[in-house]
Design goal:
The chain is built from 2 helices and 10 strands; from the N terminus they run E-E-E-H-E-E-E-E-E-E-E-H. Helix content is 11%, strand content 39%. It has a single domain, classed as Metal Binding Protein, Guanine Nucleotide Exchange Factor, Chain A (Beta Complex). The site of one zinc ion has 5 residues, from helix 1.
Length: 137
């Protein structure tokens, strides 16, 4: 059963509502996510179309040949990471009003994670090489 989850950027210029049938989230420690977020990127996964309110305020950053990132052009909030060839969104978990039932399940690129970051979770950890082996690119 999926229910509607509300989300918005910090300034509110971009918002959306989406059903999430998977409340597990993943943390990515890759260098791109580090620079973009100042720490790590927490992603909630959603497959399908999303109708963004204030879509005209979304700027797209072409972050690699296989993926791009959306952010609010007014406040800079990260909105999503999206593979170009897939309907899958990695939505920023921080955008959601209710995060109380999110559960950290995976951590990616753990071998390039700075030592000062330690997430207290019984997550599945994957190194950079393991990520590339699993998803290619
Ligand atoms: Zn904003
Ligand atoms: Zn990353």
């Amino acid at each position: 059963m999926s229910e509607i989850h509300k989300a918005s950027c910090d300034c509110g210029a971009v918002s959306f509502e989406t059903p999430l049938n998977d409340l597990t989230i993943g943390a990515c420690h890759c260098s791109s996510c580090q620079k973009i977020s100042s720490s790590f990127y927490m992603a909630a996964h959603y497959t399908g179309e999303i109708e963004f309110n204030g879509a005209e305020n979304i700027s797209i950053y072409d972050s690699s040949s296989w993926a791009h990132r959306g952010f609010c052009s007014k406040c800079g909030s990260n909105l999503y990471y999206k593979m170009k060839a897939s309907p899958d969104y990695s939505l920023s978990a921080a955008l959601f009003d209710d995060k109380s039932r999110f559960e950290l399940k995976t951590q990616l690129f753990t071998d390039v994670k700075p030592d000062y970051i330690s997430l207290n979770a019984n997550s599945e950890n994957m190194t950079r090489q393991e990520c590339f082996d699993k998803w290619g690119a």
